[in-house]
Amino acid sequence: MAEADPASVGRLKPVPEVEAMPADALDARLRGADRPFVFRGLVADWPLVEAGRKSGREARGYLLGKHRDAQFLVSIGGRGTGGRLFYDDAMQMNFRTVRAKLPEIFAQIDAVENEADPPPIYLASIDVHDFFDGLHEANHVDLGDRSCLASIWMGTRTRIAAHNDFPDNLACVAVGRRRFTLFPPEQFRNLYLGPIDNTPAGRAVSMVDLHASDFGKYPRFREALRHAQVPELGPGDALYIPSMWYHHVEGLDPFNVLVNYWWRETPHFLGQPQDALNHAILSIRDLPDGQKAHWRELFDYYVFGNADEAAAHIPEDARSVLGPMTAENASRIRAFLLRQLSR
Q1: What is the mean pLDDT of the chain?
Q2: Pairing state of beta strands 246-251 and 158-163?
Q3: How far is CA 24 from CA 20, 142, 171, 204, 240, in A?
Q4: pTM for this prediction
Q5: Do the beta carbons of residue 36 and residue 229 sit within 8 Å?
Q6: Which one of 78, 194, 201, 323 counts the least CB within 10 Å of its CB?
């Protein structure tokens, strides 16, 4: 049976909030954080935030003044979806993705902005440095020595299904309001994740519609909601989302802009865990049970256990990829995998 949006009836927990702090204190707080927190007003002094407080059209004008003459990737959905970018009944995307110049895209938003249920128009994860001049310099958070990917997300009212990301994430609301529904990583079984290779934006998403949670079809989702947290952010507010936390994201106003920063606390030469999972599905999942049990033990020994213990009996200068993971060893593993996968 479908139920009303749980966030709207106040059943979910709020996210802890922190007080204003200097940049070095924010850096320390981020380094020690393993749970989400909201920082009200962190970017309230951005020129983009000030423009958006006047109107969506004013914010678009500000962005047009700094954009590059390039083709932007934009997702356009159909009417009657309530802004939800998701699968259709055939498990294909319910939106189309095209490339267009930013003035053309914003003209389409101008035309539908005041409609009650406009078709969603969404520019997702646009690289701030590659597509704008001077936008980062005038609107950014000082995150110290982190090597960050800065992205901007712009569009009409949208709903993005719960998903997670491998990097840590600082999400800064610049224009409009956004509601996040957050789930701890260990709740993945209760979110009923969809395909890992056919996804709306590269990550597996929850198949549950948060606005019409069908507990008959997805009974374990009740348990996920017990652990969920919901912050609603206004212009200038920021949310820290730790690595692997699931987040359902809603743009609540006719025009919404978010700038986020992704970073890893681990070296960039390390591989992507999702690639390892995909390869394990290919090569291990369908083995006989006895063989799978042995490979589980090998993974525990070499990957999840004590790496030093696994190589202690091998002379230190002969441990190769079983030694400490360095950029050189990472390159050696990649080259080995490429040779094996191309056979």
Answers
A1: 93
A2: antiparallel
A3: 12, 9, 18, 35, 16
A4: 0.93
A5: yes
A6: 78
